[in-house]
Amino acid sequence: MRQAPRFFHQPPPGVVSALMAFMLWGVLPLYWKQLAFLPPAAIVAQRMLWSLLLLVPILWWRGEVRQLVSALRAPRAVAWQLVSSLLLSTNWLLYVWATLNGRILEGSLGYYLNPFFNMLFGALWFGERHSRAQLAAIGLALGGVALQVPGIGRFPWVAISLALSFALYGAARKRAPLGALAGLTAETALLAPLALIWLLVSSPTPAAAFGHTPGQAMLVIGTGLVTAVPLLCFGHATRNLRLSTIGILQFLGPSLQFLIGWQFYHEPMTQLRLLSFCVIWLAIAIYVATAVQAARRLQRVID
Protein backbone atom coordinates (compact mmCIF):
# COMPACT_ATOMS: atom_id res chain seq x y z
CA MET A 1 0.00 0.00 0.00
CA ARG A 2 1.32 3.42 -0.97
CA GLN A 3 2.14 5.55 2.06
CA ALA A 4 0.44 8.90 2.44
CA PRO A 5 2.74 11.90 1.95
CA ARG A 6 4.57 12.95 5.07
CA PHE A 7 2.82 16.32 4.89
CA PHE A 8 -0.35 14.66 6.15
CA HIS A 9 1.42 12.85 9.00
CA GLN A 10 3.26 15.82 10.44
CA PRO A 11 2.11 19.34 9.53
CA PRO A 12 4.87 21.89 8.93
CA PRO A 13 5.96 23.83 12.04
CA GLY A 14 3.54 26.64 12.77
CA VAL A 15 0.43 25.15 11.11
CA VAL A 16 -1.20 24.02 14.36
CA SER A 17 -0.39 27.37 15.97
CA ALA A 18 -1.96 29.24 13.05
CA LEU A 19 -5.12 27.11 13.15
CA MET A 20 -5.54 27.72 16.88
CA ALA A 21 -5.06 31.45 16.45
CA PHE A 22 -7.62 31.81 13.67
CA MET A 23 -10.22 29.61 15.37
CA LEU A 24 -9.98 31.67 18.55
CA TRP A 25 -10.16 34.95 16.63
CA GLY A 26 -13.15 33.65 14.73
CA VAL A 27 -15.28 33.34 17.88
CA LEU A 28 -14.01 36.44 19.69
CA PRO A 29 -16.98 38.63 18.60
CA LEU A 30 -19.05 36.65 21.11
CA TYR A 31 -16.68 37.77 23.87
CA TRP A 32 -16.43 41.43 22.84
CA LYS A 33 -20.20 41.72 22.73
CA GLN A 34 -20.25 40.86 26.43
CA LEU A 35 -18.00 43.89 27.09
CA ALA A 36 -20.40 46.41 25.57
CA PHE A 37 -20.62 48.16 28.96
CA LEU A 38 -17.18 49.67 28.15
CA PRO A 39 -16.25 51.95 25.22
CA PRO A 40 -14.00 50.36 22.55
CA ALA A 41 -10.91 52.36 23.54
CA ALA A 42 -11.25 51.23 27.16
CA ILE A 43 -11.56 47.60 26.06
CA VAL A 44 -8.35 47.92 24.02
CA ALA A 45 -6.55 49.55 26.95
CA GLN A 46 -7.67 46.73 29.24
CA ARG A 47 -6.52 44.15 26.69
CA MET A 48 -3.10 45.76 26.61
CA LEU A 49 -2.63 45.88 30.40
CA TRP A 50 -4.01 42.44 31.27
CA SER A 51 -2.08 40.83 28.42
CA LEU A 52 1.12 42.35 29.79
CA LEU A 53 0.35 41.11 33.31
CA LEU A 54 -0.15 37.61 31.90
CA LEU A 55 2.90 37.63 29.63
CA VAL A 56 5.57 38.92 32.03
CA PRO A 57 5.34 35.94 34.46
CA ILE A 58 5.44 33.53 31.51
CA LEU A 59 8.53 35.29 30.14
CA TRP A 60 10.18 35.19 33.58
CA TRP A 61 9.33 31.50 34.02
CA ARG A 62 10.96 30.72 30.67
CA GLY A 63 14.06 32.73 31.58
CA GLU A 64 13.71 35.15 28.66
CA VAL A 65 13.46 38.44 30.55
CA ARG A 66 17.16 39.24 30.11
CA GLN A 67 16.90 38.42 26.43
CA LEU A 68 14.01 40.87 26.08
CA VAL A 69 15.81 43.64 27.99
CA SER A 70 18.99 43.09 26.00
CA ALA A 71 17.16 43.11 22.67
CA LEU A 72 15.31 46.33 23.50
CA ARG A 73 18.61 48.12 23.99
CA ALA A 74 19.05 48.02 20.23
CA PRO A 75 17.29 50.94 18.47
CA ARG A 76 16.32 48.73 15.53
CA ALA A 77 14.53 46.23 17.78
CA VAL A 78 12.69 48.98 19.62
CA ALA A 79 11.66 50.58 16.34
CA TRP A 80 10.21 47.35 14.91
CA GLN A 81 8.40 46.50 18.14
CA LEU A 82 6.95 50.00 18.35
CA VAL A 83 5.73 49.79 14.76
CA SER A 84 4.14 46.38 15.34
CA SER A 85 2.53 47.51 18.62
CA LEU A 86 0.97 50.57 16.98
CA LEU A 87 -0.37 48.46 14.12
CA LEU A 88 -1.72 45.87 16.53
CA SER A 89 -3.50 48.40 18.75
CA THR A 90 -5.00 50.10 15.69
CA ASN A 91 -6.34 46.76 14.48
CA TRP A 92 -7.74 45.96 17.92
CA LEU A 93 -9.54 49.28 18.21
CA LEU A 94 -11.08 49.02 14.75
CA TYR A 95 -12.28 45.48 15.28
CA VAL A 96 -13.75 46.03 18.74
CA TRP A 97 -15.51 49.17 17.48
CA ALA A 98 -16.91 47.30 14.47
CA THR A 99 -18.12 44.41 16.65
CA LEU A 100 -19.90 46.68 19.12
CA ASN A 101 -21.49 48.73 16.33
CA GLY A 102 -23.13 45.91 14.37
CA ARG A 103 -20.40 45.52 11.76
CA ILE A 104 -19.19 41.99 12.40
CA LEU A 105 -19.84 41.11 8.74
CA GLU A 106 -17.73 44.02 7.56
CA GLY A 107 -15.05 42.93 10.02
CA SER A 108 -15.14 39.43 8.58
CA LEU A 109 -14.75 40.96 5.10
CA GLY A 110 -11.60 42.68 6.31
CA TYR A 111 -10.09 39.44 7.52
CA TYR A 112 -11.10 37.70 4.29
CA LEU A 113 -9.10 40.38 2.47
CA ASN A 114 -6.17 40.33 4.87
CA PRO A 115 -4.60 37.18 3.34
CA PHE A 116 -4.54 38.87 -0.06
CA PHE A 117 -2.63 41.77 1.46
CA ASN A 118 -0.32 39.15 3.00
CA MET A 119 0.27 37.75 -0.47
CA LEU A 120 1.03 41.23 -1.81
CA PHE A 121 3.47 42.08 0.98
CA GLY A 122 5.03 38.63 0.75
CA ALA A 123 5.80 39.30 -2.91
CA LEU A 124 6.99 42.87 -2.34
CA TRP A 125 9.15 42.40 0.74
CA PHE A 126 9.94 38.71 1.19
CA GLY A 127 10.46 37.47 -2.37
CA GLU A 128 7.43 35.17 -2.40
CA ARG A 129 6.14 34.38 -5.87
CA HIS A 130 2.59 33.78 -7.08
CA SER A 131 1.18 32.05 -10.14
CA ARG A 132 -1.16 33.66 -12.64
CA ALA A 133 -4.09 31.84 -11.07
CA GLN A 134 -3.19 33.28 -7.66
CA LEU A 135 -2.92 36.78 -9.14
CA ALA A 136 -6.34 36.25 -10.72
CA ALA A 137 -7.65 35.29 -7.29
CA ILE A 138 -6.39 38.58 -5.89
CA GLY A 139 -8.18 40.42 -8.70
CA LEU A 140 -11.41 38.55 -7.97
CA ALA A 141 -11.14 39.44 -4.29
CA LEU A 142 -10.80 43.11 -5.14
CA GLY A 143 -13.85 42.76 -7.40
CA GLY A 144 -15.77 41.31 -4.46
CA VAL A 145 -14.82 44.32 -2.36
CA ALA A 146 -16.08 46.65 -5.09
CA LEU A 147 -19.48 44.95 -4.90
CA GLN A 148 -19.65 45.80 -1.21
CA VAL A 149 -20.04 49.51 -1.99
CA PRO A 150 -23.53 49.23 -3.53
CA GLY A 151 -24.26 46.21 -1.31
CA ILE A 152 -23.96 48.15 1.96
CA GLY A 153 -24.37 51.65 0.56
CA ARG A 154 -20.93 52.93 1.63
CA PHE A 155 -17.23 52.33 1.11
CA PRO A 156 -16.15 49.42 3.36
CA TRP A 157 -13.46 51.44 5.14
CA VAL A 158 -13.60 49.24 8.23
CA ALA A 159 -12.83 46.13 6.19
CA ILE A 160 -9.99 47.78 4.24
CA SER A 161 -8.45 49.27 7.39
CA LEU A 162 -8.61 45.96 9.26
CA ALA A 163 -7.05 44.05 6.36
CA LEU A 164 -4.26 46.57 5.84
CA SER A 165 -3.37 47.04 9.52
CA PHE A 166 -3.19 43.32 10.29
CA ALA A 167 -1.24 42.44 7.15
CA LEU A 168 1.27 45.16 8.00
CA TYR A 169 1.43 43.80 11.55
CA GLY A 170 2.25 40.33 10.23
CA ALA A 171 5.00 41.76 8.04
CA ALA A 172 6.42 43.78 10.93
CA ARG A 173 6.44 40.71 13.19
CA LYS A 174 8.33 38.79 10.52
CA ARG A 175 10.97 41.55 10.45
CA ALA A 176 11.16 42.04 14.22
CA PRO A 177 14.12 40.28 15.89
CA LEU A 178 12.19 39.02 18.93
CA GLY A 179 10.30 35.73 19.07
CA ALA A 180 6.57 35.32 19.59
CA LEU A 181 6.45 35.59 23.40
CA ALA A 182 9.12 38.24 23.88
CA GLY A 183 7.82 40.22 20.91
CA LEU A 184 4.24 40.32 22.18
CA THR A 185 5.47 41.26 25.66
CA ALA A 186 7.48 44.13 24.19
CA GLU A 187 4.49 45.31 22.14
CA THR A 188 2.18 45.43 25.14
CA ALA A 189 4.85 46.94 27.41
CA LEU A 190 5.54 49.80 25.01
CA LEU A 191 1.89 50.87 24.95
CA ALA A 192 0.93 49.91 28.51
CA PRO A 193 1.70 53.39 29.95
CA LEU A 194 -0.60 55.01 27.39
CA ALA A 195 -3.29 52.42 28.10
CA LEU A 196 -3.09 53.07 31.85
CA ILE A 197 -3.25 56.84 31.36
CA TRP A 198 -6.28 56.45 29.10
CA LEU A 199 -8.15 54.36 31.67
CA LEU A 200 -7.35 56.82 34.48
CA VAL A 201 -8.44 59.82 32.45
CA SER A 202 -11.54 58.36 30.77
CA SER A 203 -13.01 56.48 33.77
CA PRO A 204 -14.87 58.50 36.44
CA THR A 205 -13.45 56.15 39.10
CA PRO A 206 -10.90 53.31 38.97
CA ALA A 207 -13.66 50.81 39.75
CA ALA A 208 -15.73 52.04 36.79
CA ALA A 209 -13.06 50.70 34.42
CA PHE A 210 -14.10 47.18 35.48
CA GLY A 211 -17.85 47.52 34.98
CA HIS A 212 -20.51 47.36 37.67
CA THR A 213 -20.64 43.71 38.75
CA PRO A 214 -18.13 40.97 39.67
CA GLY A 215 -19.08 39.15 36.47
CA GLN A 216 -18.21 42.17 34.35
CA ALA A 217 -14.92 42.56 36.22
CA MET A 218 -14.04 38.94 35.42
CA LEU A 219 -14.80 39.56 31.76
CA VAL A 220 -12.45 42.57 31.80
CA ILE A 221 -9.66 40.57 33.45
CA GLY A 222 -10.22 37.77 30.93
CA THR A 223 -9.31 40.10 28.06
CA GLY A 224 -5.66 39.33 28.79
CA LEU A 225 -6.14 35.61 28.27
CA VAL A 226 -8.30 35.81 25.13
CA THR A 227 -5.86 38.36 23.70
CA ALA A 228 -2.54 36.76 24.50
CA VAL A 229 -3.24 33.12 23.57
CA PRO A 230 -4.17 33.62 19.87
CA LEU A 231 -1.49 36.28 19.42
CA LEU A 232 1.20 33.99 20.78
CA CYS A 233 0.02 31.31 18.39
CA PHE A 234 0.03 33.79 15.51
CA GLY A 235 3.47 35.12 16.40
CA HIS A 236 4.86 31.57 16.39
CA ALA A 237 3.20 30.89 13.04
CA THR A 238 4.54 34.04 11.34
CA ARG A 239 8.10 33.08 12.23
CA ASN A 240 7.76 29.53 10.87
CA LEU A 241 5.48 29.84 7.84
CA ARG A 242 5.40 31.78 4.61
CA LEU A 243 2.99 34.72 4.67
CA SER A 244 1.17 33.05 1.79
CA THR A 245 0.62 29.89 3.84
CA ILE A 246 -0.69 31.98 6.73
CA GLY A 247 -3.00 33.64 4.23
CA ILE A 248 -4.60 30.31 3.32
CA LEU A 249 -5.12 29.21 6.92
CA GLN A 250 -6.44 32.59 7.94
CA PHE A 251 -9.71 32.12 6.04
CA LEU A 252 -10.94 30.04 8.97
CA GLY A 253 -11.24 33.07 11.24
CA PRO A 254 -13.43 35.32 9.08
CA SER A 255 -15.62 32.35 8.13
CA LEU A 256 -16.53 31.89 11.79
CA GLN A 257 -17.01 35.65 12.17
CA PHE A 258 -19.24 35.73 9.10
CA LEU A 259 -21.50 33.02 10.47
CA ILE A 260 -21.69 34.69 13.89
CA GLY A 261 -22.55 38.10 12.43
CA TRP A 262 -25.13 36.76 9.98
CA GLN A 263 -26.80 33.90 11.85
CA PHE A 264 -26.24 34.78 15.51
CA TYR A 265 -26.56 38.58 15.53
CA HIS A 266 -28.68 38.79 12.35
CA GLU A 267 -26.77 41.59 10.67
CA PRO A 268 -28.36 42.59 7.33
CA MET A 269 -27.43 40.44 4.34
CA THR A 270 -28.65 41.80 1.01
CA GLN A 271 -28.40 39.76 -2.20
CA LEU A 272 -25.67 42.04 -3.55
CA ARG A 273 -23.72 41.78 -0.32
CA LEU A 274 -24.00 37.98 -0.40
CA LEU A 275 -22.84 38.04 -4.03
CA SER A 276 -19.82 40.05 -2.93
CA PHE A 277 -18.89 37.39 -0.37
CA CYS A 278 -19.46 34.64 -2.98
CA VAL A 279 -16.97 36.33 -5.33
CA ILE A 280 -14.43 36.52 -2.52
CA TRP A 281 -15.03 32.86 -1.63
CA LEU A 282 -14.40 31.95 -5.29
CA ALA A 283 -11.13 33.86 -5.12
CA ILE A 284 -10.23 31.95 -1.98
CA ALA A 285 -11.04 28.61 -3.64
CA ILE A 286 -8.81 29.42 -6.62
CA TYR A 287 -5.91 30.48 -4.47
CA VAL A 288 -6.14 27.53 -2.10
CA ALA A 289 -6.42 25.05 -4.99
CA THR A 290 -3.28 26.39 -6.66
CA ALA A 291 -1.42 26.43 -3.35
CA VAL A 292 -2.36 22.80 -2.63
CA GLN A 293 -1.23 21.75 -6.11
CA ALA A 294 2.10 23.49 -5.58
CA ALA A 295 2.54 21.76 -2.20
CA ARG A 296 1.84 18.37 -3.79
CA ARG A 297 4.37 19.00 -6.57
CA LEU A 298 6.97 19.96 -3.97
CA GLN A 299 6.20 16.84 -1.92
CA ARG A 300 6.67 14.62 -4.98
CA VAL A 301 10.04 16.22 -5.61
CA ILE A 302 11.08 15.63 -1.98
CA ASP A 303 9.87 12.00 -2.04
Secondary structure: elements and pairs:
Layout lengths: L5 H4 L5 H19 L6 H22 L3 H7 L3 H26 L3 H22 L6 H21 L4 H19 L4 H23 L11 H25 L4 H7 L2 H13 L6 H32 L1
Helix pairs in contact: 2-10, 2-12, 3-5, 3-9, 3-10, 5-8, 5-9, 6-8, 6-11, 6-12, 7-13, 9-10
Descriptive account of the structure:
79% of the residues lie in helices and 0% in strands. With 303 residues, the protein is mostly helical. The relative contact order is 0.21.
Offer a few descriptive terms.
single chain, 303 residues, mainly alpha, 79% helix, globular
Shape from CA axes?
globular
End-to-end C-alpha gap: 16 Å
Assembly context of the chains:
single chain
Describe the sheet with the most strands.
none
Helix content: over 70%
Mean pLDDT: 84
Radius of gyration: 20 Å
Count every beta strand, where a strand is a DSSP E run of 2 or more residues: 0
Q: How many domains, in number, for the residues?
A: 1
- The helix-strand sequence is HHHHHHHHHHHHH
Helix-and-strand structural type: mainly alpha
Uncertain stretches: 1-9
Distinct helical segment count = 13
Summarize the structure.
With 303 residues, the protein is mainly α. It has helices at residues 6-9, 15-33, 40-61, 65-71, 75-100, 104-125, 132-152, 157-175, 180-202, 214-238, 243-249, 252-264, 271-302. The longest helix is centred in the last third of the chain and has 32 residues, at 271-302.
